[in-house]
Amino acid sequence: MKLDWDIRSRVLVVALIPTIVLGLLLTTMLTFSRLNDLEEALTQRGQATARQLASAAEFGLFSGNREVLQRLASSALESPDIYGIAIYDKDSNLMAMAGLQVHASASASAPSKADVMKIGSQMLRIVEPVRNIHTLEDDPYTLTASAKDQYQPLGEVVVLISRETLDSRKLNQIFTALLMLGLVLAGSIALAVLMSRSVSTPIQRIAAAMSDIGSGNLATQVPLEGRGSLRQLAEGVNEMAAHLLVARSNLEQRIAAATLQLRERTEEAERANLAKSRFLAAASHDLRQPMHALGLFIADLSRKEHSEDTRQLIERIAASAEAMENLLDSLLDISKLDAGVVSSNPRPFALGPLFERIGNDYDHAAKERGLRLRVRPTKLWALSDPLLFERILINLVSNALRYTPSGSIMVSARKRGDHVLVEVRDSGLGIAQENQASIFLEFVQLDNPARDRSKGLGLGLAIVRRLADLLYHPITLRSAPGRGSVFGVMAPGAPAESNPEPLINTELNFLGRIVAVVDDDTLAQESLVGLLRAWGCFVVASDSLEGLLESLEELEVEPEVVVSDFRLPGEHTGLDIIAKLRERFRHDLPALLLSGDTGPETLRQATSQNVPLLHKPVRPSKLRAALAHLIQQGMAHNTE
Predict the structure, then answer these.
(1) Is the pLDDT of residue 173 over 90?
(2) Considering the chain, what percentage of its residues have pLDDT values greater than 70?
(3) C-alpha triplet 522, 525, 530: angle, nearest 5°
(4) Which positions ≥6 away from 157 have C-beta within 8 Å?
(5) Scanning 135, 203, 204, 442, which has its CA 20 to 30 A from the CA of 93?
(6) Range with the poorest average pLDDT among 59-63, 268-272, 351-355, 564-568
(7) pLDDT of 517 strictly over 90
(8) What is the pLDDT of residue 186?
(9) Which residue has the higher pLDDT, 138 or 246?
(10) Backbone φ and ψ of 477, nearest 5°
(11) How far apart are CA 615 and CA 58, in angstroms?
(12) Alpha helix segments (H runs only) across 350-419
């Protein structure tokens, strides 16, 4: 396990461990040496006493004088630590004894050396032989005994010496050693603590200062203590903090200057963006008005009889106007999706009618390009926003028509667990793997380097991706060069309902329908009135509410549908006029709002008053479908 010690603890450990180990070793060695010396001194004293007694007992043993031997033993007993003395002859017969009883050596009859034996834990038994070292006669010329007999032991002296004093001195020695060891350790600990403080305290202060500096308090200063490396380190930290303080001050000044400059540029960019938005809004409105009128004039013109050359010219004009309308619609869709003003309203709906509308709307376009459009009938239902989901499929089918030079296009739906997978399959050029991610970006067209308008603007798949993200519908793509492409949209499935929503009858007969039109732009009003009258409607038009009411009173009619522009002269908008007409005639009067404004506020106001909004330029087919839907709703309310 890793120990997380601070520097002070580490310094203490480094200082104390060697001192403790060395102190223990020295104390142990000296103590054992002293104890051995005491033990040896006691043994030597006992042996000296035994030798003295053996020398003094030689005559008594030789002569067999027990009285002399007894006095000798009794006198020797008075020596300290002597507890017993016994003198034996060579036949192990006890000649004299004083103190504790002792026993003769087993080898008393044979020549022997001094013997020391430990008896129990409190006694030492020392045996010393008594030798005959004097002859009976001093005549040097007469030998009465052999050399062997001369040194034959006469007996032995046995001394018992107590170890009590020795053990007491040993305990005193051990206690003294431990006391000295404790004093040494205490001094070592005090010295180690002092050293650790002298080393760790400056380092801890430097560490605390570095922590404060790291926290942003660059004014922190480390006290200068001692000498050497720690002082140099403290001076270096203080110098570093001073440099950092100056650098931070300079950086703050630069950041403040850059922030001020950025704020000025941001405000300038916001002003420019606001001016651009105002310009685009005004330009979009001003551009959409004539485009709206142009589209309606072309639609009205195409219904009349013309020569073949004139009809071809009208078709080319219509194609150019449609290209411009597609561009404006695509840019409008992209801007609304990016601005987040488009909201989804998921509900269960049948895919069959949607497939039928797509087949009817795009079958003619497919035949013009020599393609076959196959739409497989389906009874599946999906949970999604029907309008946004239809826009996804329309863009996918339109994209397939543009990039399929020959072959066929198929729209189908199949179940995938709890979901429904709707696929648009084509036999076109195909898309390489490395390009499949980029095709969903704006204005990306892989096979249109010349920017052929017939192949679109590169916004269809970008709108598909944004709509799919809004609806949380995954988009799938399987494609390879030369093998066509399969685009898929995965939506949650829904159970079929018994009363599906009725289809809009776009072929509804408009003959005799009374339509009130309010528009201040002369060209837009004339084109709309001409197209409605060409469809058989009875149109009452004006550029203001007062003029419209006067015309309706003069003609003594009530409008069945109101079509109004949003921007009008004066203080009233198209929504105000629709509200006034509903108050005047009936509260559920069908109404349609036309506007060249692409801002989200107009859409919110129209939605809050339950008025459908069509952005100019409005295609005649879209206008006809919207009017048919409103008339059907009005007829249903009247029936109720």
Answers:
(1) no
(2) 75
(3) 120
(4) 50, 53, 54, 57, 85, 86, 87, 88, 127, 128, 129, 130
(5) 135
(6) 268-272
(7) yes
(8) 81
(9) 246
(10) -145, 125
(11) 150
(12) 351-368, 386-402
The pLDDT value given to residue 374: 92
Give backbone dihedrals phi and psi of 459, rounded to 5 degrees, phi first: -110, -10
Q: Is the pLDDT of residue 139 over 50?
A: no
Enter the tokens of residue 626: 């919207």
Separation between Cα atoms, residue 520 and residue 543, nearest integer Å: 4
CA-nearest of 286, 331, 318 to 621 is: 318
**Residue 521 pLDDT level (bands cut at 50, 70, 90):** confident
Distance between start and end Cα atoms, the chain? 86
Residue 563 has which token pair?
């079509």
Domains of the chain plus CATH, in order, are 7-136+144-170 (3.30.450.20), 219-342+505-640 (3.40.50.2300), 345-494 (3.30.565.10)
Helices (H) and strands (E) in the chain, counts: 15, 17
Angle at 208 between CA 207 and CA 210, to 5 degrees: 65
| DSSP sequence for 173-208 | HHHHHHHHHHHHHHHHHHHHHHHHHHHHHHHHHHHH
Rounded-to-integer distance, Cα 78 and Cα 611, Å: 139
Determine the Cα–Cα distance for residues 57 and 131; give it in Å rounded to an integer. Answer: 9
